[in-house]
Amino acid sequence: LHKGISEGCNCLGYHMWTFIDNWSWCNAYKNRYGFIQLDVDTQQRTIKKSGEWFAATALNNSFDKE
Asked: Disulfide check for 47: which of 19, 24, 40, 51 has CB 3.0–4.6 Å away?
C-alpha cells in the first residue's frame, strides 16, 4: 500500500479482513488471520504483534520502513 501511494496511487482507505482470528478453509484451517488471537476454549483475546504494529501505525499516522 505504501509503495503504491508513493508511486501516485490514490488510496482513500484501508480495510482489514478481520480484527480477530479467522480461519480459512483454503489452507485447511492452519493459518489464523487477524490482529487479535482468540483462545477458543477460554475466549481470552490477546493482541498479536501485527495488532500492536497496526495500532502504532495508526497512532503515529506513519510507519517505520525498516
From this structure: 51
